[in-house]
UniProtKB/TrEMBL annotation:
Organismal lineage: Bacteria, Bacillati, Actinomycetota, Actinomycetes, Micrococcales
Protein name as annotated: Putative thioredoxin
Region (Disordered): 1-40, 161-185
Signal peptide (from-to): none
InterPro entries, per the entry: Thioredoxin-like_sf (IPR036249), TPR-like_helical_dom_sf (IPR011990)
Top-rank taxon: Bacteria
Organism: Micrococcus terreus
Gene3D superfamilies, per the entry: Tetratricopeptide repeat domain
UniProt biased composition (Pro residues): 175-184
Amino acid sequence: MTEQPPAPSHLRGAVDLSSLAARPTSESTRSAAGPDRADQASGSWVVRGVGEGELQQLIQLSARVPVLVHLRTSVTPVSDQLDQLLTPAVNGRQGRLVLAEVDADAHPQLLQVFGLTSGPAVIGILSAQPVPLLNQAVGADQLDSLLDELLQVAAQNGLTGTVPPLGPQEQAPADAPPAPPALPPLHQQAVDALAQGDPDAAIQAYRQALKENPGDDEAAVGLARVELMQRTATLDADAVRRAAADSPDDLEAQLRVADLDLVGGHVEDAFARLVRFIALHPGEDRETARAHLVQLYSVVGDQDPRTAASRRSLATALF
């Protein structure tokens, strides 16, 4: 490739994927881009639930059209915001682009394929070459400009074709529940701020919502997620992990590693690290670590079995 769109600094340095793309592919996925697929007007170019095998096959497809890989994570609302914009933007280009959605929480090794330690991130792939694009929500106009620029770079490299749909158009089932009600004003203000790349404004909105209603659990979760994003955005993962290994009794060092583990999808490791610290360190450090761990519980969600298991371990460590 001769040029690339600018990328956030921590997304740079992704590896050449040509060897991954060269692996054998299954006949079923070869046919996904063949002429016998559904009519383009009713199809979709978005592939969800992509694992390593499907990613290998889609990287092969990047020799024909650009492939976008959305490495999504549940620890931040940014992935949902990106999906709401990416899906119509890709389908609206009628086969000039393909979108692969990867659950980075379930497949953290696929973050490593792209030289990343955490998501979310959107990577473009042209002829097995990665082009980092996004790691935060953007406005629809900015996304359109990025995709148009990506298509221009693709054209300069001879990728000017289209592919048939990779699946049927996504439609809500007839018995689907009604759309959720509009967000409360301060919640919407926070979401809009994140979409504009302003996490500070989002934090202010969530804090104001909690000030007005201390029992607003959704605002508390939103605040915890955005604060986690901010704490980890500029961390040097290697340096943080070295510091934690060298100073196992340093509370801040252990908290930073736990944050990195969580955003990287290593939820059990993050929880276990703090439970272990709490068990070994009575006093003020114990309470600070416990409060931080409870905040991470809210990021993951109380219904997650990993949270329930860790709460049991925490109770044992405390009592």
